[in-house]
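Review form for a predicted model. The reviewer records the input and the model, then writes brief findings.
Reviewer: anonymous (R2)
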Amino acid sequence: MPMAVAREQGWRVERRYVRVGGIGTHCVVVGQGPPVVLLSGLASSVAASWQGVLPALAARYHVHAVDLPGQGDSEKPHRAFTFEAGMEALEELLETLGLGAAHLVGASAGGLLALGLALRAPRRVGRLVLIGNAGFGRQLAWGLRLATLPLVGELLAMPHRPLVAWSLRQNFVDPRLASPELVEELTRVRRQPGAKRALLSALRSSVTLGGLRPHLVLQDQLHTLSAPTLILWGAQDRVLPVAHAYIGQRLIPNARLHVLEGAGHDAAVERPEEVARLVTEFLG
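Model under review:
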């Protein structure tokens, strides 16, 4: 996992819990240089999302890999987890960590939050990297849509290893990347108290049977985005269609796009060396 890899490289790794909105929020801090914040997708964790790219980024940046409230190893109180609450938590986290502004790297739902904050509080964001992010269109995988239904969602969110492994394989072109270690990590975080409730709250507040809720499709705001933006997308993404990447490139001023052939939704896990290289080249 990323902390062990970083220690092997000789870097000091700090695992911190800070209070964000009164909620214990977990982050891994490593490296030196300009601040970079990594934001995972829904129902993931720092270890599951960033183990392949964290060492390369930590060689050049002061990296903060974050589990926002309700995610990963952060606390999961009985409350609503919405897009608006996530953006507020992210902005408060930057303040709590003493980061006036930072480069944001967000994957999937984490990319939606990073994009939302860059639109809402541009002074907080240096450069923006979006990896298979939500927010460019309504279309998304039917598994996520069905999980918004009563009872169906409760069944699909059960933290059983075979079910976790099946859902994880949907993110990859090569299903072997859903390794026993990765399945075990995601099973561990999904078995934490309140994890199932938090996942379903976040999912149902942002998705319906029709797809992403219309207020989260940010196309009409993208022309106002001032942060230099890099969009990375797996060409074979089965969760969010690659057509969304071209929408983002067209509507965001001067956005750069790189489509990764042979990769699915979780490109940072499937192609970590290439993602790390593209991110470091873009951040400069």
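Findings: The mean pLDDT is 94.
Further findings: DSSP finds 13 helices and ten strands in the chain.
Recommendation: see findings above.
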